[in-house]
Structure to design on (275 residues):
């Protein structure tokens, strides 16, 4: 299909010859924020453009070209998440609670954090330790938080988009919090 | 309802509560547990603080690179051109 045909089909609303200049950086940044992997993000920008060229008949000018391309990119990111979530780390042993009665293991018992929580993001060392502890979490767990905060999705929507069960979802959230809390207690107290 | 809820279960209910998905009985179960368990009381406060920090971190962190280099863009342009000529 040539450019003229695409234009004719879509009433002059799609301009693939300008996509790289107009949207490549935007789409790359969008993917980076959600995947933090530059090679993967680069590939997804190309895949988005190619899928858009193929699917251009679907674009009927109801949304802007940018929204349309962003939607395609978002679906590619969700596909990537689903692939990553096939390896949800659910079977690791639980270091936090006693096997027999489910109460806290003594060394894991929560103690109040020493630094003032409202200053964590302002004080460089505290912010850095937070970043280190967050980045230690398995990607699959972080995906859930990313979807909650960047896509503003409910727990039900996240489970359905990621194709995971409610119970795996809650175990992931719970474990992520426990690991993060424990990591910060070691660094901050 | 489980009157002698353990900490593993109580902390899970705390997480669910933050997402707004617990019922009256679980709420009561948690309240009973928190009335005697100091550790989980601390956890509850920290869990909310951590949620807030995770939120701020995700919303405001900027990736190391956020633009494509020239050669990557040239390759993309070429690829689109090729497709358009097909």
């Amino acid at each position: 299909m040539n450019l003229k045909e695409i234009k004719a089909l879509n009433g002059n609303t799609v301009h693939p010859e300008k996509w790289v200049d107009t949207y490549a950086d935007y789409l790359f940044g969008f993917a980076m924020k959600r995947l933090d992997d530059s090679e993967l993000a680069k590939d997804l920008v190309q895949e988005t453009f190619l899928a858009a060229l193929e699917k251009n008949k679907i674009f009927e000018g109801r949304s802007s070209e940018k929204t349309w391309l962003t939607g395609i990119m978002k679906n590619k990111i969700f596909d990537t998440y689903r692939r990553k979530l096939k390896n949800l780390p659910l079977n690791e042993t639980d270091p936090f609670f006693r096997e027999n009665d489910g109460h806290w293991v003594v060394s894991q018992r929560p103690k109040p954090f020493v630094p003032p929580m409202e200053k964590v993001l302002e004080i460089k060392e505290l912010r850095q330790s937070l970043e280190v502890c967050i980045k230690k979490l398995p990607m699959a767990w972080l995906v859930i938080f990313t979807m909650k905060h960047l896509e503003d999705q409910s727990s039900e929507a996240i489970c359905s988009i990621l194709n995971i069960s409610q119970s795996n979802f809650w175990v992931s959230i719970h474990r992520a919090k426990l690991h993060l809390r424990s990591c910060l207690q070691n660094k901050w107290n | 309802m489980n009157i002698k809820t353990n900490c593993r279960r109580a902390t899970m209910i705390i997480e669910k509560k933050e997402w707004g998905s617990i019922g009256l009985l679980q709420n009561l179960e948690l309240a009973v547990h928190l009335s005697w368990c100091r550790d989980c009381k601390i956890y509850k406060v920290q869990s909310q603080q951590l949620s807030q920090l995770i939120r701020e971190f995700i919303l405001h962190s900027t990736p190391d690179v956020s633009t494509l280099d020239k050669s990557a863009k040239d390759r993309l342009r070429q690829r689109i051109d090729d497709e358009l000529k097909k």
